[in-house]
Amino acid sequence: MSAQIIDGKEVAKSVRKSIKARIATLKEKGVTPGLATVLIGDDPASQTYVKSKVRMCEKLGLYSEAIGRPADIAQAELDEIVAQLNEAPNIHGILVQSPLPSHLDEPAVVKAIKPEKDVDGFHPYNVGLMLIGEPNVLPCTPHGIMKLLEYYDIDPAGKEAVIVGRSNIVGKPMAAILVQKAKMANATVTIAHSRSANLAEITRRADILVAAVGRPGTIDGSMIKEGAVVIDVGVNRIDDSNDPRGYRLVGDVDFDSCAARASWITPVPGGVGPLTIAMLMFNTVEAAERSISG
């Protein structure tokens, strides 16, 4: 078997197209969806990610405000930035780029963002709504994965889904979404992680495998069942002297060996990544709509 490619760029394009009319309607009502990004420090990967968000806002016609501060910022100053953005009428979504420097209290920053402006979907209030199946907003990467499955008509209902990774950003919310009694859900879900015994035995049960551990080559072809759907969330830099950048991007999945056995697979780059930013725009537009709906 040779896997078919799940094209994240194509799906992201369809998401952006779906919100353009909604953006136009909001502007007719005098509301331009606004997203504020807060970047602490000068991490190159985070800088690149924030710049891509700003460019996407410009492309779609959203208002964008990028705030940068040095890595030694005091907690009180960051708290004040968030407080000001909470009250800014032209800002509907607030994103504080993770990870923060170790001296800052990241959970406190997440909790300080108003739930209605939490377009990352990380606030405990929004996490609780997601868990009970009444989501206000879904975290961008898991939401993007669901869009990929929906676009390619891969229905998780009745299937066994294994998620390798237990982060609050991907693993846990992915499990919560897939297990719901809802359309494009109803899966039997297992979460595996770095301390799971016999990982390969667990992953070989999966009809749908989501790899989100942040380690290249964690999953190879011997660890998946024939015909599995493989979703690779990992984005890892590895040295490559043949690449002009000196590195190349790979996922958590060994693509070639898994593609030989899977039915569908996401590439890295070009798979899940484009959907993360697309769903951030989607969430910002929804937040703007809620701001005028009462």
CATH class of the largest domain: Alpha Beta
Reported CATH architecture of the largest domain: 3-Layer(aba) Sandwich
Number of H/I helices: 10
Largest sheet: 6 strands, parallel
SSE-based structural type: alpha/beta
Gyration radius (Cα, Å) is 19 Å
pLDDT under 50 segments (min length 5)?
none
CATH superfamily of the largest domain: NAD(P)-binding Rossmann-like Domain
Shape, per Cα inertia axes: globular
* CATH fold group of the largest domain: Rossmann fold
The structural domain count equals 2
Describe the strand arrangement of the main beta sheet, using strand numbers. Answer: 1-11-8-7-5-6
Would you list the SSEs in sequence order as H and E?
A: EHEHEHEHHHEHEHEEEEHEH
Number of strands: 11
Task: Give the overall average pLDDT.
Answer: 95
Beta-strand portion reads 15-25%
Q: What helical percentage do the residues reach?
A: 25-40%
Gap between N and C termini = 52 Å
Structural commentary:
This protein is an alpha/beta fold. The chain folds into 2 domains: 32-114, Rossmann fold (3-Layer(aba) Sandwich); 140-273, NAD(P)-binding Rossmann-like Domain (Rossmann fold, 3-Layer(aba) Sandwich). The chain has helices spanning 8-28, 44-60, 75-87, 106-112, 124-131, 140-151, 171-178, 199-203, 255-259, 273-293; strands at 4-5, 34-40, 63-69, 93-96, 160-164, 188-192, 208-211, 229-232, 236-239, 247-250, 264-265. The chain has a 6-stranded parallel beta sheet. α1 runs parallel beside α10 and α2 crosses α10 (273-293). The radius of gyration is 19 Å and the shape is globular.
